[in-house]
Amino acid sequence: MQKYIITGGSRLSGELTLQGSKNSALPIMSAAMLGDGESVLKRCPALTDVYSASRILSYLGCKCTVADGTAIIDPAGSSGYEIPDDLMREMRSSIMFIGAILGRNGECTFSTPGGCELGPRPIDMHLAALRKMGADISDNGGRIHCRLNKRKAHGAKITLPFPSVGATENIILLAVCAEGETIVNNAAREPEICDLCSFLRKRGADIKGDGESTIVISGVDKLHGCEHTIMPDRIAGATYLSMTAAAGGEIILKNTCTAEMEPFISVLEQTGCRIYLAEDRIYLRSGARLRAIRDRIRTMPHPGFPTDSQAVLMAALVIAEGASVFEENLFDCRYRHTVALNKMGADIVVMGKVAVVRGVERLKGADIEATDLRGGAAMVVAALAAEGTTCLSGISHIDRGYEKFEEAVSTLGGKIRRV
Ligand code: EPZ
Predict the structure, then answer these.
(1) Whole-structure pTM over 0.85, yes or no?
(2) Which residues form ligand 1's pocket by a CB distance below 6 Å?
(3) Contact 32, 56 (CB under 8 A)
């Protein structure tokens, strides 16, 4: 089990180019198995989740290579429709292959993705939508089999009870080559949905309204190959900004999707950091002690405050002057990182979906363990701002979503090494 050894107390300063988005690359890799033609994905991040997705594509019969920041996927001849248990367990977001496998092969077999570090992860909305589009679904003790009559889905009018990102993505993946028109009401509006739709339109899909609450997809007969550059990772961006805010110093973040990061930035700037924005870069300087955030920080679907940035912002606010209040509305179990932060001297009290963070003067390094991807990143943020040395285990969680993380932190002057 690899660990990070982090020595806190250094101010950070440097330039970073933001990685491609994990949460855009994964659904786009799934979408690349639809239709014909080779897809070339630039700025594809080197992440363990991306390699897991590549293994699933190869297992299903696609040609898939990921190297030097580029993924090349050719689905020609791919007829596999079963995702084996071990690959399903490797990555919960394997669920977003379902729409693409069904769309390509007319059937799909997979295991219900178990709960994850964030709590139970039901897929009822995914399955209800697939049924509406013609899928017969049976569950044999956790192994789910979906089959389309005549191997083709038909369009449907679907209203999601909640703007689920994954369910919206699976509907789009099945609808792009279905018979007729599919309307998705209460669709997720995350920027990664827009990036997926931009990729599919380049391949010949007919999709309108992505980024809004109603998306209309008209099925087409064919999709061809294309070249696409994955959008920047807005959550990794929030992580590096929070890190610099907490440790003190300055950062120039390049290749940013600044507009899409506004929900996070509009909160971060309330801490008193100086933030200068350009379309594709962000400059942040953090001098004096951060101020607490006066208003409650509620995580909400986009364009609300992103749940994936909750932990890293909290890690910066634990040493702010004053108290901040978080409300986590997306996941049942997304405060696990508070145990480690409190072990480092933070003062966080969790009551259900509310966490009250009372700023303390200083944190001290400790032996802690990452329990999930963004919680682990939050622990690095805290360790860099703490006095002394932190030993962080469980860093395989971090490898799922951050490309060359210790290199990036070292580039900023942070003292971190992997052992
Ligand atoms: C995506 O997960 C992201 N993952 C998550 O990022 C992100 O936190 C989440 O969207 C919300 O923005 C990827 O894109 C790979 P949801 P997803 O379906 O699609 C419930 C990270 O750190 N729900 O929008 O799984 C669900 O339990 C990860 O990069 C149902 O009840 O999120 C959750 O409470 C973590 N039934 C809420 O909806 C369903 O059928 C939001 O889930 C589907 C979802």
Answers:
(1) yes
(2) 22-23, 26, 93, 121-126, 162, 164-167, 188, 190, 307-308, 330-331, 373-374, 401
(3) no
